[in-house]
Amino acid sequence: MKDAKQQTMEQKWQGDMKIIVGVKRVVDYNVKVRVKSDGSGIELTNVKMSMNPFDEIALEEAIRLREKGVATEVVAISIGSAISQETLRTALAMGADRAILVVDKRVLEPLEVAIVFRELVKVEAPNLVIFGKQAIDDDSNQTGQMLAGLLGWGQAAFASAMNVKNGEAIVEREVDAGVQTIAVRLPAVITADLRLNEPRYASLPNIMQARRKIIEEKTLSELGITYKPHIKVLKIEEPEARQPGIRVNSVAELVKRLRQEKNLL
Amino acid sequence: MHLSTTRESMEFDVVIIGAGPAGLSAAIRLKQLNPTLSVVILEKGAEVGAHILSGAIIDPIGIDTLFPNWRKEEDHPFKTAVTQEHFLILGEKRAWKIPNMLIPGVMSNRGNFVVSLGGVCRWLAQKAERLGVEIYPGFAGIKMLYNAVGAVAGVATGDMGVRKDGSHGLNYTPGIELMGKYVLIGEGACGSLAKELIAHYALDRKSCPQKYGIGIKELWEVDPVRHRSGLILHSVGWPLDKRTTGGSFLYHMKNNKVSVGFVVHLDYRNPYLSPFEEFQRFKTHPTIRNVFIGAKRIAYGARALTEGGWQSVPKLVFPGGALVGCAAGFMNVPRIKGVHNAILSGITAGEHIALAIASGRAHDEIIGIEDSWRMGPIGRDLLPVRNLKPLWTKYGTKFGVILGGFDMWCHQLSGFSLFGTMQHKKTDAVMLDPSFMHDPIKYPSPDNILTFDRLSSIYLSGTHHRDDEPSHLLLKDKELQEKSELGVYSGPSTRYCPAAVYEWIEDGNSRRYVINAQNCIHCKTCDIKDPNKNIEWIPPEGRGGPLYFDM
């Protein structure tokens, strides 16, 4: 006999299934990133910003689950200053049902982001949280894992294919030895890898409609979060410039120069 | 061109193509005059400013008209006034400075500002959006839509997610139709829709052929001790030979940035000439190179500009809309400026269209736009300088510049020109000589400190096109390209293209033409200079192209 709790859980899968997707505003992947001349950070003035590509994949997967009738609601959430509304408008144009902006101008470290999402999970009560596996600006690759830990939920990181049924997510992960398939009981946290899907284009009519939608706003204090950062960025520097190559005329010359100038061979 | 058969359609009062200075100014003026109008702007770049490239020095006359109180605002982009200007004639080792008192008054830059035109456009876009203009970057207008009586009724955007072979990808998204009572075309020089409209309505019936130049630009962060905010420098002469015309600009902006660029007029004759290499050589001149000691190049780009001026401006209006800005061609060659005229033309179009809509009109020809520009400030700007470009082309740099200067003085003092109105007779494409008439030019190799190759340069332009999309550079006749472009002209496309898009690759005994469309920075030079007009530039999928940030 199933206990009452399990029964309500199963009912829940057949009824409402809500997915939260975290989307981050980052420097567009086509931008040639430049370090500020004083080494204090990356030059962001007038630089094109976009939704983190892995988050776009996460969002696409959530929208597909809703379109397949598996999920009923997709909520896109971002943390940032008012300008991050742009990213959420993109999410709405792609097909998210609602958008929430947690307004904060600072750069948050992964643990703090995970705590913010833990608090939002308490409010929104989703069955699934999907993130991109990492943001392309800081490459931390930590938030999804930390959130699963904080919530005591299962997790499937680096998903390259997934399917949700009967309260489980069947997830394929590309590991060194091949493809690993795992089943994770929901609620769970999944992080999206590059090959999970190819995100759709936001069509012009959908972009127009998204501009009229309301983006809910919250602050850290409303969520009851006080946080002392554990990490301080000391400096950022560009990789050393590559020396221009030279052309040699013969193998003999190559060997000679490698010996004499580089002390090799 | 990829057009789906079933497209959604949306109605607006005015549809504007291109979020440059002309299109944005037109939109702003429309909303200033009538806030209830629905005005939409499509921009093919990934964001406003992404495809904008200019020197730039701006004469504030246009902005003064649009926002009379802009100087009292804090966030305006005109922070660097021109403080000092030099005009140089360069020889290989030496430079002669033309005393400012000899320079015709129209060429003075007193009261003008050094800006990033991308920054100006972002500022204008914010203003426009606050007035309720809807701006959609990432969408190209690719085809005009006509109504039953042959007037323009709207514009179609391109489909997205089409594969190289023309089939639909998994995320295929059809384009839509934006219908408007009037459509304004502000695509900049050699716009693809403007080309279609000029041909369709024979708008150039009474004007000379349009003439073009290619401007190649780099942005540098220089050593603060070598930086003089507001100092500007123009030059003619070396490294171009005396039959090839063009010149350089070098502007000290704020924050230790220096904008440096080179314009080569596209009526050059020698098919071995490479505008890119001429620019790289220019930077090595003894009077120029010192600015770049200890400096770092941070951006690169190129764009064609119109140079025909007064004589080449086509009829601006057609039933259902008008051309604005450099889609028509309001560049003033000796002043090396067109932005002020682009803004003024946008304002004029906006005013006339607001009036027409208020009186219930739609899809008709607004002849008032046509009648007012030659008599108004744009005409007053372009008329006195109309002979410089033809004189320069005809007599080369040495005598052309002197004669042109003399003519402008004459106009300034007497109101008349010695030469009447000289005509441009030929398109730039037919000016190219067969290669046997010239010797190949040996350009120095790049040192990767001051001078660079094209591939490392386009890397700095942030250029991107989706891997699997169809090429947006159409070769009309493959055989002709091999027989003529290669056989007669020795492959000028491999040199005039500033983004290394075109290559002739040896393939056994034959040569294969490769078009690396993904490198294209949308300058449109190929569409202008191919000797047989055999290459056509069409807009690629929206968001494709360069990602300029402060050009």
Folded structure, characterized:
The complex is a heterodimer of chains A (265) and B (551). Chain A is of the alpha/beta class and 265 residues long. Chain A has one domain (13-262): HUPs (Rossmann fold), CATH 3.40.50.620. Chain A is built from 7 helices and 11 strands. Chain A has helices at 4-14, 53-67, 85-94, 110-124, 143-151, 204-211, 251-262; strands spanning 18-22, 25-27, 49-51, 73-80, 98-103, 128-132, 154-165, 168-175, 178-185, 188-192, 216-219. In chain A, the strands form 2 sheets. Chain A has a 9-stranded mixed β-sheet with strand order 9-8-7-10-6-1-4-5-11, with helices on both faces. In chain A, strands 2-3 form a two-stranded antiparallel ribbon. The longest helix of chain A is centred in the N-terminal third of the chain and has 15 residues, at 53-67. Chain A starts with a helix and ends with a helix. The mean pLDDT of chain A is 91. By secondary structure, chain B is an alpha+beta fold. Among the domains of chain B are: 8-68 and 118-207 and 314-383, FAD/NAD(P)-binding domain; 79-113 and 210-306, D-Amino Acid Oxidase, Chain A, domain 2 (2-Layer Sandwich); 387-414, no CATH class. Chain B has 13 helices and 24 strands. In chain B, strand 19 (317-318) and strand 20 (321-323) form a beta hairpin. The interface between A and B is medium-sized, with 20 and 34 residues.
